[in-house]
Specification:
The structure holds two protein chains of two kinds. By secondary structure, chain A is an all-beta fold. Chain A contains no helices and ten strands. Chain B folds into three domains: 175 residues, 3-Layer(bba) Sandwich (FAD/NAD(P)-binding domain), CATH 3.50.50; 122 residues, 3-Layer(bba) Sandwich (FAD/NAD(P)-binding domain), CATH 3.50.50.60; 58 residues, Enolase-like, domain 1. In chain B, α5 links the parallel β10 and β11. In chain B, the strands form seven sheets. In chain B, strands 3-2-1-7-19 form a five-stranded parallel β-sheet, with helices on one face. Chain B has a five-stranded parallel β-sheet with strand order 9-16-10-11-12, covered by helices on one side. Chain B has a five-stranded antiparallel β-sheet with strand order 22-23-26-25-24, sandwiched between helices. The chains are: A mainly beta, B alpha/beta. At the A-B interface, loops of A face α8 and α9 of B.
Chain lengths: 108, 394
């Protein structure tokens, strides 16, 4: 079920918004204008990916530099081992809507 | 090279094994580990593992789907390295010969001189240490932590969250002055008082009081701190004694160049045991940070696989470490020296949320963050790839 979260205009390109639900979700607005939503907590240790470094469609955790592909949630660089969940995003009338995945992240 | 031996099966040894396979080495790898456990991660041992938030299986370093095809020879320490032929002799007598050797034997916790035989006195380095300490903390009571470094501070924080009464004793007048400088060290040390942990600085420990069991810690000024439990976080010593007679240059660690090459051909050293030349510091240093043990082995492996050819080290990584204490995240990157100026560029130390930049000759050389991962990370990137100075906005 799609839930409205925030106006797209409130997330500058190259930035992220941390949706403080439990568990928290990070919404990224890439330089190319795409929007992705993933679990905010790095699967390696307790760090917020919304604080991380966004490059293309990849986010790098600010704590130990684990990298995740925002499109699939898969780990691109260790030390993280487990992927993060991705959530479906739609921008409707300039508002970012997210449908939370309710399954555990699987391996590709 | 057909067979490579990695001496050490913790973070650096594991990272070396992974790097060997990633760099295309298809030969035999044997990894020798003194501990009985497959490679595991140490940082949670002073944090979530002590509080019960994290369990043993979560510490494992290997990805369950990753098969490095390594023979893990665990529970045996290397006792000798023969200089001429790279033959390693283990403490149980087994001999392992290899075409190349990666020395990654790490470091061990320094112990208090008069602690032998006294129950209730702990150090924290290994998983076995942490299991013992966790059980002891579960019995509650009064904990005295000797040493206000990062291990001591994190254990104090974990113990406090478990309801123990905690006192931290630091011989130096300024805690964390070595890594952070006196001013920022003092700011971080205020976290203890914020959370009901007593901190005494500038007074060394004179002795431990107790017969079969530690009952108190006596300070040089005569103060006696009653204790049910004592944790010594007083630093680490590199595990290099086993290399005596090997022909390797040893000086506060295994001496290597910037790329991990030692004085012996086909032998490299990496991680906590290596005393490596560092061009930022302008001298050899021994780095005990997790990220160093995680990243540097790839360079040492490249050096080993390149054979005799000099392997250019590439851009040296900017040192980085973090500490989680009392729910506060402290992060530090770069090289700080006495004489560097420090200024707050974001936030407020009183709010325990800030970024401080250290400068030398007008250039940023190090950055400290407290609960400011995002801004800290921007400054940290600035240190490795100088460009426009990050703005505080956005």
């Amino acid at each position: 079920m799609l839930r409205p979260v925030c106006p797209l205009g409130s997330i500058p390109r190259g930035e992220a918004y941390r949706w403080a639900i439990d568990p928290p979700v990070a919404i990224f607005h890439t330089d190319d204008g795409e929007v992705f939503a993933v679990d905010d907590t790095c699967t390696h240790q307790d760090a917020s990916l919304a604080d991380g470094w966004l490059e293309g469609c990849e986010v790098e955790c600010p704590l130990h530099a684990s990298r995740f592909d925002l499109r699939t949630g898969q780990v691109d660089a260790p030390p993280a081992k487990k992927p993060i969940r991705t959530h479906r995003v739609e921008v409707i009338d300039g508002v970012v809507h997210v449908a939370l995945a309710d399954v555990e992240a699987g391996r590709v | 090279m057909l067979k490579i031996a990695i001496v050490g099966a913790a973070l650096a040894g594991f990272a070396a094994a992974r790097a060997l396979r990633r760099q295309g080495f298809a030969g035999e790898i044997v990894a020798i580990g003194a501990e009985r456990h497959l490679p595991y991660d140490r940082p949670p041992l002073s944090k979530g593992f002590l509080t019960g938030a994290c369990s043993v299986p979560e510490l494992a370093l290997a990805d369950p789907d990753e098969d490095l095809d390594v023979r893990w020879r665990l529970g045996a320490a290397a006792a000798r390295l023969d200089p001429g032929n790279r033959r390693i002799v283990l403490d149980d007598g087994e001999e392992i010969r290899a075409d190349g050797v990666i020395v990654a034997t790490g470091a061990r916790a320094r112990r208090l001189p008069d602690a032998d035989g006294l129950a209730g006195v702990h150090t924290l380095r290994t998983l076995d240490d942490a299991i013992t300490l966790r059980a002891a903390l579960g019995r509650g009571g009064r904990l005295v932590v000797i040493g206000a470094g990062f291990i001591g501070a994190e254990v104090a924080s974990s113990a406090r969250s478990l309801g123990l009464e905690v006192t931290v004793v630091e011989a130096l007048p300024a805690p964390l002055a070595g890594p952070l400088g006196a001013e920022m060290g003092a700011v971080c040390a205020r976290l203890h008082d914020d959370h009901g942990v007593r901190l005494r600085t500038g007074v060394p420990v004179a002795r431990l009081v107790g017969t079969a069991r530690a009952e108190a810690v006596e300070l040089a000024d005569g103060t006696r701190l009653p204790a049910d439990l004592v944790l010594a976080g007083i630093g680490a010593r590199p595990n290099v004694e086993w290399l005596a007679g090997s022909g390797l240059a040893i000086s506060g660690g295994v001496v290597t160049d910037e790329s991990g090459a030692t004085s012996l051909p086909a032998v490299v050293a990496t991680g906590d045991c290596a005393m490596s030349f560092n061009r930022h510091a302008g001298r050899a240093i021994r780095v005990e940070h997790w990220t160093h043990a995680f990243e540097q082995p790839a360079t040492a492996v490249a050096t080993l696989l390149a054979g005799g050819g000099r392997h250019p080290p590439g851009r040296p990584a900017v040192p980085y470490f973090w500490s989680d204490q009392y729910g506060v995240r402290i992060q530090f990157a770069g090289h700080r020296e006495d004489g560097d100026t420090v200024r707050i560029v974001e936030g407020d130390t009183e709010q325990r949320s800030f970024v401080a930049v250290y400068e030398r000759d007008g250039r940023p050389v190090a950055v400290l963050g407290m609960n400011q991962s995002k801004i800290f990370t921007r400054w940290r990137r600035q240190l490795s790839a100088p460009g426009p100075v990050p703005s505080a906005a956005s």
